[in-house]
Amino acid sequence: MTRDLRLYFWIIGIPVILVAVGGLRLLYVEAARARVAEENSLQAKAESTTRSFSGRMREKIDFLLNRVPSLPDDAAFHVFSKEYPLMTTAFRWVEGKGLLWPSKCSTDPVERMVAHRLTVPLGPNSTWPFVRSSHESQTKLPSGWKFIPGEKDASVLAWVRVSSNEVRGIEIARETLKQAFLRHVESLGLNSSSSATPHATVVSIVDFLGQEVLSPSVPIRGQMCGRASLGRLLPDWTLCVYWRDGDWPLAGEMSTMVCLGVCLLALLVSSLLGGAILLVRAAQKARSDSLKKTDFVSTVTHELKTPLTTIRLCADLIESGAITDEAGLQRAAHSIVAESDRLSRIVTNVLTLGRMELKRQQLSPENVLLETLIREVAMTVPGFQFNMSIPEGLKVRVERLSLQGILFNLFENAVKYAAKGGPVDVDVERFEEKNLVHVRVMDRGPGMTKEEMAHAFDQFWRADNSVVRETGGVGLGLSIARGLARRMGGNLTVSSRMGGGCVFTLDLPMARSIAEGDANG
What we know:
- The chain is of the alpha+beta class.
- It has helices at residues 2-67, 74-83, 109-118, 174-188, 251-320, 326-357, 370-380, 400-418, 450-454, 466-471, 477-487, 514-520, and strands at 89-94, 98-101, 143-148, 155-161, 166-173, 201-206, 212-214, 224-230, 234-243, 366-369, 386-389, 395-398, 424-431, 436-442, 491-496, 502-509.
C-alpha cells in the first residue's frame, strides 16, 4: 500500500505540482512583461506629446512673427497685442535705444508691466542673443526664441530681425504656455481622471529644481511611469506621467489572477492529498473486507460442518442399529430435522445476501395479517417465549417469506442473546398519518453499547463478548433483515431499552386498502 501511495505521488502528484508552479511563474513573468511594455508605451506617448506640442507652438509663433515686421506704428502694435491671446504683447527693439514698445508711459497697465519687466533684458546695452555686430549682413534676418526664467513672470521671447539695427518680436507668458500644454495633454487623453478608464494616467510638470509647475489632478501615490523634456521651447520643464491610482491599472487584476492561481494550486494539492487519503482508506477497506470474507468463509464452513456432522452421526446410529427403542429413534429423527432446518437457514441467508448484493432479490408484496404471521414464526423458534400486544385485524403490505425471515432472525436472536431476561415483548403500533406499522421486539438481555449498536447491521460484524462467542453465527442475520425491510419500503433499527435490554423496531408499510386487504389476505 505504501509503495502504491508513493507511486501515485511520483506519477501524478509531482508533475501536476511542477506544472502548477511553472504556470504561476509564467503568470508573474507575463505580468512583468506587460507592465514594462505599458510603461514603454507611456514613455513614447509622453515624448510624442512634448514633440507635438513644441511643433504646434513653433507654428503659431512663426505665424505671429511673420506678421510683426509689417506693423506700421505703435497703435498697430497695441491692436496686434490684443488680437491674439496666446501672447502677452508684441515688442520693438532698436540697437542703441533699447526697448521702444511697449512703453513705460503706455496707458495700458499690462503694457506698462511688460515694459518694466523687459527693460533689463532689452535695454540699450543688452547682450541679448539677437544683438549682432554692424558688419553682419543686413539681408540675413535671423529669428529665434529664448526662455526668460523667473519665479512668477517667466516667459518666452520670440523675435525676428527686420533691419540691421531693429528687432521685433512677441512675449508669451509661461502660464499661458502651461494652460495650452494642459489642453494639449487633455486632447490626447494622457491626463485621465476617470476611474472607468482602464489605463488612467495623470501628468505633472516640474522645473529643473524638481518643483511642480503643474500639479496633477489627483495626489501622486506611485512611481513615475514616463517623462519627457519640452526641449528648447521650455528647457527647464519636464513632463512626468503617473498611474492615476498609484500603480499599474492591471496590477489588481494580475494580483487577483495570482491569488486565483495560488488557490487553484492549493485546491490541486488538497485534491491530491484527498485522493491519497481515499486511496489509503480504499486499501484499508479492501483489506478489511478481504479479512471479513475470509473469516466469513471460515465461519460458514464451521456452521455448515456442525449440522452436517450431527445429521451424519444420527444417520449412522440409525443405520448401524445402535438405536433400537422408539424414543431414541424419534430423538434422532428430531435432531436430523432440526439440523436440516438450521442448515437450510444458513444456506438461505448466504444466497439471500448474494442476491441482495447483486440487486436480484425479487419481491412479491401482498397484504398479510400481521398477528397470524407473528405467531406462526414464533412457533418455529425453539424456546421462544413472548408477550404480544397488537391491534386486531391489522394487515401489512409485505413479501411474506421476507417478513418471516426478518421476524425469525429477531426472535432467534432474542432466544440466543436474551434468553435469561425472561419473555420477549412484541408490541405493534399503527401510524395512519405515516402509513406505517411499528413492530417492536423488546428483550431484557444484556443489551448493546452505542458502538455495538452503530455496527449491529454491518455485514460479518459480531460483538466481541462472551455471549456472542458462545452462541456462534456469521454476523449476517441483522444485515439481511434490514436489507429486506428496506426493499419492502420499511426499515429496521435498534435502540436501548429503559431498564436494560434492546429494542428492535421494524417499520412496515400498511395494507393499501381494506378492500384490497380482503382480496389478498
